[in-house]
Amino acid sequence: MEALLEPMTLLFIVLVSVSFLLCTLSPLLYSSFVATRQRPVLPRRILFVTVVTAFSYGLFSFLSFVVGLPVQAYVVFIAPQLEFSGHYFGEPLVSAARFVLRFWWLWVGPVLLALSVVVTRYLAKRWSRIVAQLDV
């Protein structure tokens, strides 16, 4: 029986899938790594991992809505009206916006990876003072 995919193609698909999974889980994985490896040890490590993970995913969702909603509204409502009236000169902009909106899932992994590094570094420096203010 002949294989559907060549072994190198299958290996590439598996590597891309695993890297995408690791990138989307990077807020959880990277903050856990920092919480267990940083010296001096962070107080309330589980709370740190939870806060960093929630903040990273929340910031990603917020940025997705802040960028995606106006672009989608422009592409769906404004660009067709401008094109119909003959005052439309933004075809490259609409093409780029449609590309980004169609393949948004390609950006999830790298953006989450970058956000997890930034948020973890930002909160790790301040975490002892944050926990001290909690009085728990």
Report what the structure shows.
Helix 1 runs parallel beside helix 5 and helix 3 (45-85) crosses helix 5. The chain has five helices and no strands. The protein is flat, with a radius of gyration of 21 Å. It is mostly helical and 136 residues long. It has one domain (7-134). It has helices at residues 7-24, 26-37, 45-85, 91-102, 105-134. The chain starts with 6 loop residues before the first helix and ends with a helix. Helix content is 83%, strand content 0%. The relative contact order is 0.14.
Structural class: mainly alpha
Into which percentage range does the β-strand content fall?
A: under 5%
Number of helix segments? 5
Distance between the termini: 64 Å
- The helicity comes to over 70%
- What Rg do the Cα atoms give? 21 Å
Q: Describe the biggest sheet?
A: none
**SSE run:** HHHHH
What sort of overall outline do the alpha carbons produce when their principal axes are compared? flat
Q: Layout of SSEs?
A:
Elements: H1 7-24, H2 26-37, H3 45-85, H4 91-102, H5 105-134
Features:
single chain; 136 residues; mainly alpha; 5 helices; flat
In short:
With 136 residues, the protein is an all-alpha fold.
